[in-house]
Amino acid sequence: MLPNRCPGQDPRFWKPTDIAERLCPSCGAAIEFWKDDVRRPCPACGAVVANPGFDLGCAAWCQYADRCLGDAAADAAGQVAPAGQGGQALRDGLIDAMKDVFGDDGRRIRHALRVLGYAERILAAEPADPLVVKAAAVLHDIGIREAEAKHGSSGARFQELEGPPIARGILERRGVVAERIDHICRIIAEHHSARTIDTPEFRILWDADHLVNLFDEASGPPPGGATVERVFRTATGRTIALGLLDAEAQRSDDEPADARPRPEPPAR
């Protein structure tokens, strides 16, 4: 059962300064914002304006945030909350958008969700912006279908070319701030090549993608410890990779070759 509305969101506990007028940056008209308004349309020109006084810090830690605040909790993470806040509703919305793009391509949907799972596991131990990491994980391969349609290939360079514009549209429609959108799109644009980017968020996505692809038949035999040390970019990613290799080696020793399941074809 949902608890009583918390004092921070109950208007009975608000101060006069929690309701304020701001000027529309488009036309200069006054817009009345309550402190829990993420954004409001201007009554004069209709422009949707973000509330510069928005404060919803409780969404960062309260276990009831999504149930109490609904989409506002995701908006807080995506638009105005400090780095470090996630937003379950936003995460789930991006997954839905990814599934819409891939349609009946279950293999690529499963790949994206597995990358997200590893990214969240690494994120629990490595400091980074959760919103950027999770969004990049969900959307990192989002350009594959467009690459195949326009270039007849899902090659890495075509994915990196076609993915960012699609991801940008998805993120903009969900109100994510421009700075974070730019960072996510940079990650997507280099998630195979790593030409110029080396942020903590990129390293986590890089390692999560490589963990999913660790046993791809197309990549040849699984790498050894030295290769793991060279390829993986976070300490947590390396630890997980070495653990997976040890578990696979043990399983291979214990099972006859004809009893081992064949890996799913790579989804890159």
Quickly list its features:
268 residues, mainly alpha, Hypothetical protein af1432, 2 domains, two-stranded antiparallel ribbon, two-stranded antiparallel sheet, 6% strand
Could you please describe the fold and organization of this structure?
This protein is elongated. The protein is mainly alpha-helical and 268 residues long. The longest helix has 20 residues, at 235-254. Residues 76-86 have low confidence and may be disordered. The chain has helices at residues 65-69, 71-80, 88-102, 106-123, 130-139, 144-151, 156-173, 178-189, 200-212, 225-231, 235-254, and strands spanning 19-23, 30-34, 39-41, 48-50. It has a two-stranded antiparallel ribbon with strand order 1-2. The chain has a two-stranded antiparallel ribbon with strand order 3-4. The chain has 2 domains: 1-83, no CATH class; 86-259, Hypothetical protein af1432 (Orthogonal Bundle), CATH 1.10.3210.
Quick gist of this model?
The protein is mainly alpha-helical.
Name the overall outline: elongated
- Classified in CATH, the superfamily of the largest domain is Hypothetical protein af1432
Low-confidence stretches: 76-86
- The number of domains: 2
Looking at the overall shape, the CATH architecture of the largest domain is Orthogonal Bundle
Spatial order of strands in the largest sheet: 1-2
What fraction strand? Answer: 5-15%
Write the H/E string, N to C.
EEEEHHHHHHHHHHH
Q: The CATH topology of the largest domain, please?
A: Hypothetical protein af1432
Radius of gyration: 22 Å
